[in-house]
């Protein structure tokens, strides 16, 4: 179940799910752009299927003669019908909320309680496509929808649900394999001179240290120039507070982090909250 | 002593389990059916310990990338472990013998309104087209009218099987699509369903009226009589389900609008599925039986039997002591 407080969460692109184990975890909600890309992939897949079936039927019709021609037209129309109304329901039921397009973009449809999709849910959300895709494009593309209604509804909903999602009680979530960043190590190791210039007890709050740590863990995914740009936003504030100077902002933050954790290692974590903005020599 | 562990120590201690879980999930396309018993119980155990890790990571306020990683892993494990309900044949049987007619009877009010919205414009169409050609020309392009008149100008003497199959395919594509649109657009506070019911009613009525006015009324009525009970009833059922959905947005009975929609959802799914099944039957009849060269009395007799069966089915099926009073 999604809890009401979820709606007041600061992060508006995640939805909290409570499992039968009473554990809550967050799903990242998929936005319109990503879903539109998945839609385009599915559109191409559907087009290819219809084209292939149409070619087969045409070849069959020519080969066998007029007796089959009518029948093959009917067959193509049946396939067209099945693809138009059944493609999404088929795959979402078979693959537990995923179609080829959604699979390619790591999307999955789940119920708004975070449970796997059932046949009825999928049927409703995909029948309602007929309302979401309004108004259709002008001729000759009138068989395609502009999805203006769906987009407008998504824009108003905190969880990016279109009409079909609202009626079917579903959400589209992003399901990616994240990686966990490894241990952060400052290279080259800080020189004694660098550490000596810092106060023994850092005048940094826990939140500031968390922010520094988060930044350092992202270093391997940032270009050096960008990393420096980000570091320059905070490093001068800390440097002024401690009355020190630095050459390289990124490295300065790394040294601060090293110092904070070396400090924690010496005194143990049970030393309680560190005093803020207090320059004193530790015992 | 959660805080006693640094993030790096925590990750180092638990990482192996996470990677094992990730590995089990990746094997066999994340489907539980493709894993053996040992892997499933290992998966369940790893999932539960991962949930603990997640709570711990959050409580200790480790970095967001770590909680995001654990969140995503937990979500994938959850999706695999709690698979969708299996598809069971008895459900299909009880759907047709019980659920669909019941859902329709409970929605009798909107079914009646949908009937009026469809059949009154049909009558207007028939009467208007019979009264003046201008009326028909206003409603439909003359090319469509001429095509229709041409189609029914000859008696029904049967077609070849290929054409029959072709037309059956066309009826499935066209008519089920119409019914689905009639339903789906009802989510716009019922406006779409009302529009499509009236539009299709007027369209059908005008075509029939025009063909009658040019003197082929017998042909078109004989053609239509067998499949119309299924086809028109199904379109009206779909429209009625759309109206129920639209009304759920207006009269919420103390729920939020979305909650009210969700409450109506099981009933409307049943009605739309039932209507789709009826339209498939209608397409079969319309493709193979209606255009055949059988004498009109046979077709009218069939029409009577079909109508009676539909009325009895929709009115009586699944009516037993267990039907919840409303």
Automatic annotation (TrEMBL), chain A:
Keywords: Membrane, Transmembrane, Transmembrane helix. Residues 274-283 have a biased composition (Basic residues). It comes from the Bacteria. Residues 263-283 are annotated as: Disordered. InterPro entries: RDD. The chain crosses the membrane at residues 43-68, 74-95. Residues 30-168 form the RDD domain. Its main location: membrane. It holds the Pfam family RDD. It is a multi-pass membrane protein. It is found in: Membrane. This is RDD family protein. The lineage of its organism: Bacteria, Pseudomonadati, Myxococcota, Polyangia, Polyangiales.
UniProtKB/TrEMBL annotation, chain B:
Keywords: Membrane, Transmembrane, Transmembrane helix. The keyword Coiled coil does not apply. InterPro entries: SpoIIM-like (IPR002798). Pfam families: SpoIIM. It comes from the Bacteria. The keyword Transmembrane helix applies. The chain crosses the membrane at residues 110-131, 178-199, 206-224, 230-250, 271-289, 301-318. Coiled coil: none annotated. This is Stage II sporulation protein M. It comes from Sorangium atrum. The lineage of its organism: Bacteria, Pseudomonadati, Myxococcota, Polyangia, Polyangiales.
């Amino acid at each position: 179940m999604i809890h009401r407080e979820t709606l007041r969460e600061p992060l508006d692109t995640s939805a909290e799910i409570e499992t039968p184990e009473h554990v809550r975890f967050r799903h990242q909600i998929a936005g319109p752009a990503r879903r539109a890309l998945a839609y385009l992939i599915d559109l191409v897949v559907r087009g290819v299927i219809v084209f292939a079936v149409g070619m087969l039927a045409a070849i069959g019709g020519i080969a066998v003669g007029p007796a089959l021609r009518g029948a093959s037209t009917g067959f193509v129309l049946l396939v067209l019908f099945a693809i138009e109304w059944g493609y999404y329901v088929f795959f979402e039921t078979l693959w537990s909320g995923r179609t080829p397009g959604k699979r390619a973009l790591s999307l999955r449809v789940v119920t708004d309680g975070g449970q796997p999709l059932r046949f009825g849910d999928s049927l409703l959300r995909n029948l309602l496509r007929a309302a979401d895709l309004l108004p259709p494009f002008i001729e000759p593309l009138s068989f395609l929808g502009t999805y203006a209604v769906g987009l407008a509804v998504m824009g108003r909903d905190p969880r990016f649900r279109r009409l079909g999602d609202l009626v079917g009680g579903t959400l589209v979530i992003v399901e990616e394999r994240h990686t966990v960043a490894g241990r952060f190590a400052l290279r080259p190791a800080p020189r004694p001179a660098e550490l000596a210039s810092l106060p023994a007890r850092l005048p940094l709050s826990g939140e500031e240290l968390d922010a520094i740590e988060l930044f350092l863990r992202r270093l391997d995914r940032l270009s050096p120039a960008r990393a420096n740009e980000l570091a320059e936003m905070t490093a001068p504030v800390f440097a002024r507070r401690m009355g020190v100077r630095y050459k390289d902002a990124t490295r300065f933050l790394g040294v601060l982090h090293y110092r904070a954790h070396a400090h924690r290692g010496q005194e143990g974590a049970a030393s309680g909250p560190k005093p803020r903005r207090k320059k004193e020599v530790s015992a | 002593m959660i805080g006693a562990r640094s993030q790096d120590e925590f990750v180092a201690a638990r990482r192996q389990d996470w990677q094992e879980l990730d590995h089990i999930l990746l094997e066999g396309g994340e489907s539980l059916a493709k894993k053996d018993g040992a892997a499933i119980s290992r998966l369940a155990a790893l999932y539960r310990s991962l949930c603990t890790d997640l709570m711990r990571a959050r409580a200790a306020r480790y970095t967001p990338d770590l909680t995001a990683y654990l969140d995503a892993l937990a979500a994938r494990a959850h999706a695999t472990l709690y698979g969708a309900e299996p598809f069971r044949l008895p459900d299909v049987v009880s759907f047709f013998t019980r659920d669909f007619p019941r859902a329709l009877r409970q929605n009798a009010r909107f079914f009646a309104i949908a009937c009026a919205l469809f059949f009154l414009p049909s009558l207007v169409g028939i009467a208007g087209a019979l009264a003046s050609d201008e009326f028909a020309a206003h409603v439909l392009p003359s090319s469509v009218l001429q095509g229709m008149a041409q189609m029914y100008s000859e008696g029904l003497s049967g077609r070849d099987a290929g054409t029959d199959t072709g037309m059956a395919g066309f009826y499935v594509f066209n008519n089920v699509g119409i019914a689905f649109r009639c339903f789906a657009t009802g989510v716009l506070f019922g406006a779409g369903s009302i529009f499509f019911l009236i539009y299709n009613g007027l369209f059908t009525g005008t075509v029939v009226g025009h063909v009658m006015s040019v003197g082929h009324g017998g042909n078109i009525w004989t053609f239509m009589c067998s499949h119309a009970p299924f086809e028109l009833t199904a379109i009206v059922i779909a429209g009625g389900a759309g109206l129920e959905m639209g009304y759920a947005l207006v009269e919420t009975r103390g729920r939020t609008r979305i909650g009210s929609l969700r409450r109506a959802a099981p009933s409307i799914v049943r009605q739309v599925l039932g209507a789709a099944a009826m339209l498939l039957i209608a397409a079969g009849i319309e493709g193979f039986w209606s255009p055949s060269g059988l004498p009109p009395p046979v077709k009218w007799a069939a029409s009577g039997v079909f109508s009676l069966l539909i009325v009895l089915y929709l009115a009586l099926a699944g009516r037993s002591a267990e039907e919840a009073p409303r």
